[in-house]
Design a protein that fits this description.
Two copies of one chain form a homodimer.
Chain A: H1 3-17, E1 19-21, H2 22-29, H3 33-45, E2 49-52, E3 55-58, H4 74-85, E4 93-96, H5 100-108, E5 116-119, H6 122-130, E6 135-138, E7 141-144, E8 149-151, H7 153-160, E9 166-170, E10 173-175, E11 179-182, H8 185-197, E12 201-204, E13 216-219, E14 226-228, H9 239-243, E15 247-248
Parallel strand pairs in A: 4-5, 4-9, 5-6, 9-12, 12-14, 14-15
Antiparallel strand pairs in A: 1-3, 2-3, 7-8, 10-11, 11-13
Chain A binds a DNA duplex through residues 3, 22-23, 31-35, 37-38, 53-54.
Chain lengths: 249, 249
DNA sequence: GGTTTTTGCGTGTAGTTGCGGGATTTCGCG
DNA sequence: CGCGAAATCCCGCAACTACACGCAAAAACC
């Protein structure tokens, strides 16, 4: 029996019965438990089932969960997220933008953390909601279907009313000369407001976006307090930013 | 029975009856009391139930997972959703609450519909976002993790500023004498505001919730314009509502 | 024919469950 | 109101199961 075939069989079974047991499957298909486990792992990675101890459940089990679709260069983003999380302390007010890096960070937040997270990004909010001790504030307004984030004057006005301790920006392009740039006008307006409102601005960016430029300017480098990439801080690529007085992690 | 599966079962039971007893559960599922207690502990840690001596209470309705129940009631909800959709017209401003019935309706919206949907319910918003021609307005504020909806004075203030053509309420309990009642104080405040703001109030409820009462009052029957259940309008169960001048679909 | 993928196995690790014993809460009754 | 019995809870333990990881054989692929 081929791998694909097997996985299709499992999937069908899961969708029919809402659950499968690894032990039953392996005797049924006549392969080792490891193989079944690997199959379930694969299916879980694709978001088609939810793996649990002893088997798997239908992914429709969890009503609200965005497809954990293959995040682009996820390992790197996990490194970034880990560094970013080290900046968090209990009791903080945290403002975040959208983007997959932010979502990755949201997923990795320690369960013990007690803080308030503010965002207009739907995927990020979904992750925050799963956390047991985090207060979640949703910034409302019209939803931009492309970026899955609330945009508009209402959202900007709301952000101006708050004074978060720290602000995490998922970044599309950053350059020592041009600062942060982006390609969606409405999102840029929002990010500007976020930067102005916050006591401390942290910029999350994978290395391949460093030294790139997008058409619309968000802010100059002097607004950035901390820059986080997956590279070690002393990497030559990041040298120019340290020279500008930005703390590099 | 898998651990998660068991917990889902317990959760469903809690949401249905508003309470569970450890002793009953353990004989029902055939595991030791310790296991049940650990499950309740886990669920309580995630904020999904409130643990008390001897069992657990509903921490308002929390609908992560209910495949067995959902499978049964989904057809009913689809009937309701279909009737509700017949009330929609292009260009309308539509305000909706949360709840699985509303989500079902969101999934079934005709692709050709062009309208503006306003809601604070995260699951509903996710569905609206997938629709090609719908404008989505998100009402922001603190998120209630239990009901997955934004609650608080900001959200209420925002709703008071708008004047939607029609408002769809997912209903937990409706009774000819007591009107609409619910069990989450904050959600009730929000629903009150929604009812006041809207030109027309449509109440969606599956028949098993008709003639039931929850602790907190939302509104009297005279605020309701239309009542939709999965039953035919002339069903005797719905007679009292017609007599009160409510249009029954 | 060499390379990649897939599979099964062994080993050590982690998760889950039921049980016993002692602390705590609840509740009826004098 | 206080007391004692019963139920319930909490904690640590041990048995059992399931899991991850690395490795080598087998299969499939090119």
């Amino acid at each position: 029996m081929l791998k694909k075939e097997r996985q299709a069989y499992i999937l069908q079974k899961v969708n029919l019965h809402n659950k499968v047991l690894s032990s039953l499957l392996c005797s049924e298909i006549n392969v080792s438990e490891d193989t079944i486990r690997r199959d379930l792992q694969d299916l879980a990675d694709e978001g088609k089932v939810i793996k649990v101890h002893g088997g798997a459940l239908s992914s429709s089990f969890y009503e609200v969960s965005l497809p954990p679709a293959a995040v682009y260069s996820q390992p790197k983003k996990k490194i970034i997220a880990k560094k970013a999380i080290s900046l968090l302390e209990n009791g903080m007010f945290v403002l975040t933008s959208g983007g997959t890096t932010i979502v990755e960070m949201a997923r990795m937040l320690p369960l013990s953390l007690r803080a308030t997270f503010i965002s207009g990004s739907i995927p990020a909010i979904l992750e925050y909601m799963h956390h047991p001790h985090i207060e979640v504030i949703l910034v409302g307004d019209k939803i931009s279907k492309n970026s899955k984030i609330t945009v508009g004057s209402e959202a900007i006005a709301k952000i101006k009313q708050i004074k978060p301790d720290i602000c995490f920006l998922g970044t599309n392009a950053i350059d020592p000369e041009q600062g942060i740039t982006d390609n969606d006008w409405e999102v840029v307006q929002l990010k500007k407001a976020m930067i102005e409102a916050s006591r401390k601005v942290v910029c999350l960016s994978i290395a391949e976006k460093v030294n790139t430029i997008q058409p619309i300017k968000v802010c100059d480098t002097n607004k950035i307090d901390i820059l986080i990439t997956e590279l070690p801080p002393e990497s030559p690529l990041l040298e120019p930013f340290s020279a500008l007085g930005i703390k590099v992690l």
